Amino acid sequence: MRLHHLHVAYVEKASSSSSPAPSVSPSIPGSAFPAFAFKCLRPLAPKISLPEPRKMIAPPDFVPRARNASKLLNYAVQVPTAGTTRWNPSPEQIKVLEMLYRGGMRTPNSVQIERITDELGKYGRIEGKNVFYWFQNHKARERQKQKRAALLTLSTLDSSSLLAANETKEGPEKKKKEAHDSLTSCKRRCKAWGDGAGDGDAATTEAADCTDDVTLELFPLRPQGKA
Amino acid sequence: MRLHHLHVAYVEKASSSSSPAPSVSPSIPGSAFPAFAFKCLRPLAPKISLPEPRKMIAPPDFVPRARNASKLLNYAVQVPTAGTTRWNPSPEQIKVLEMLYRGGMRTPNSVQIERITDELGKYGRIEGKNVFYWFQNHKARERQKQKRAALLTLSTLDSSSLLAANETKEGPEKKKKEAHDSLTSCKRRCKAWGDGAGDGDAATTEAADCTDDVTLELFPLRPQGKA
DNA sequence: GCAAATTAATGATTTATTCAAG
DNA sequence: CTTGAATAAATCATTAATTTGC
Fold it and tell me: Annotated region Disordered: where (chains A, B) (predicted)?
């Protein structure tokens, strides 16, 4: 009954970082979006326009994980030539991302990610997945930070049981698994963030309508358009 | 000093299965692979060949979840024309998927997914994400089924404490969070399932080399090639 | 002062849990 | 109730800080 949204991945230009010019690197070729930048195109059958096109998660790459391979068999791991490993966000990028986060953005949709990626691309190599991951991780870690602080506060003004001995050096100390949404009661708050319903060829959707509860514009610098 | 791997997304061919002569729903347009079908290609810099090219998850679609959207604002959700909502696997599809699962496949890589999707496309509408999700869910649910059975067995032959009252109607009953890998000791067994390291243009990798501990061929019916 | 060893942050995956369509 | 779809939590792995020995 819904539309089917075909997701079209558009390739990134492949060899992009030949001359990174690290700090601000203006010329990040292509690579606007890795792959998960698919948008919902043809419904596969003449469907009506959904309320929203249903999102879609992007499954992993299916390639098995190579846990500590590089460590185990580190034979001649030469040339750290250009940064090609994991994304290393520049201060500007982090600043903007945090601004957006504080603005209330939790899980940006494809259009938003595209914008953000495009914008942050000015400050260094970045891909859509980086933006996505950043929000995922940041959200999660802010939450757990808050949680920790919360129950530490509770315990402090409750019985002062000195549970500070927990994280002396033990990072993952079994976790409490409690207080899932106690303090951070804003569980699933503003889940409706834009739409991402790029219908068919209308890829130029504004996506600036997300006036949910935050009034922060995505990128005031770039109201619209690609240029 | 590490090596880096750049992951390059490759576009899907869009309309590959133009005339599959399917048994059930004939006109499945393209959609051989959604987007998460990227593979790790060139390292962007002359890196040495990794043990394996590092996988890459495919971040969700970024479109916010529409939990009960269609229910909340179900204004004129007309025409249930053709099934376009969620994938409804045909018996043949399920049969093949279960066969593959029993064969040992847990998380197929992109090449495998592509194949499976393409193959199962003969039996009805299907997308790569469906295959991916199926394996995810099936794995998870088989695991929890096994876990449940395991500790139920234990409790039965231990003290017969009748903990069956737990899941009368309460699906998510806080979970035990215990016995993470007690009975299902095969934790992360055959994680090495193929490679997905389609090197460069050699997209016609066999992907039939995964002779890990299962000898089941992916699709004996279709040894290789698209046609 | 620098480079190897160690620790802390955090980017990237995988797994578990939840939601809702059929 | 089953199960496809999506999100959140947990986990892993890599990179930057930091420390230590020279």
Answer: 164-185
